Amino acid sequence: MWFKNLRIYRLTKEFSLDAEKLNELLEAQAFVPCGSQDSVRYGWVSPLGRHGNQLVHATNGYLMVCAKKQEKVLPATVINEKVEEMAQAISEKEARQVGRKERQNLKDEVLLEMRPKAFARSRLHFAYIAPQEGWVVVDASSASAAEELLENLREAISSLAVVPLSAKNLPQQTMTHWLTAPEAPAQFDFGHECELRDPKDSGSVIRCKNQDLCAEEIHNHLVAGLQVHKLGLVWRGGVDFLVDDQLSVKRVKFSDELLEKADNTDAESAALRFDADFAVMALEISALIKDLLNAFGGVNTESASVEEMVAKASRSEAEELAREVEEVVF
């Protein structure tokens, strides 16, 4: 359950649902396995897996949820090969070429035949809501996976006003300044990994792993104009990670001391162990986010949520329509 990635979103409106109400709303979209002709299914499951039946696990005000995505595995090469065989048979039998539209129909037939026999692959995506701090934290390596979870959560509860976390200072410029100095921000030390990019040539990338980031060769690249887009940092609270220019935190590794802190609790069941892990992890991530934001100059609160942008666009359209009406009348 310990998160390996942190996609952090800022709540732009108060999150007022408690665990009981949130669980009730998620039950309407609880996970259902793929049927014979389903290619993908997405729904909510208990964060505790087989050890729990509630779709929300609450600890110290934090609300953990878990989404399950199941997909039928149908290799494109197998499908295309079958379609080609069928098209070839038609061509030989009827002495004609099979067109694009007919090939698409053949592909639909193949999918209809193969889908019930296909293997199903499942993945779990965890996230937790921190209403008291105004965050939603998703354990996802890609933005698309995180947005998919948030979109399904928004659909389940009708409204979820969030925006990706952004800072007042530009991350790439700030990280470049740190490494050029070289001086890590307060509460952090440099790790052993970074990615440098040329702002004038997006294709020019230098990736450094298991390197001394204060070495002269890296400093020379920075002096030449390259900027830091990913940087390995070690938080002195006990977390090793890689942060990028979108403030996405990846490859999170919690120290043995933190893991042992959770293990030292007298948990008599899987549910209590999960609760202890969640409590320790959420508190540490909360402190990490606070120090990370301080390092980047604080939170940028000017960005609007998707809902706010849609509402603003709707108001603008309504105002424009009203002006047009006034021009016609007067």
Automatic annotation (TrEMBL):
Family of the protein in this entry: Belongs to the RdgC family.
Keyword match NADP: no
Listed Pfam families: RdgC (PF04381)
Location(s) in or outside the cell: Cytoplasm, Nucleoid
Keywords of this entry: Cytoplasm, DNA recombination
NCBIfam families xrefs: PRK00321.1-3 (NF001462), PRK00321.1-5 (NF001464)
Origin species: Microbulbifer variabilis
Identification of the protein by name: Recombination-associated protein RdgC
The keyword Cytoplasm is annotated on this UniProt entry: yes
Family matches, as HAMAP family: RdgC
Entry function: May be involved in recombination.
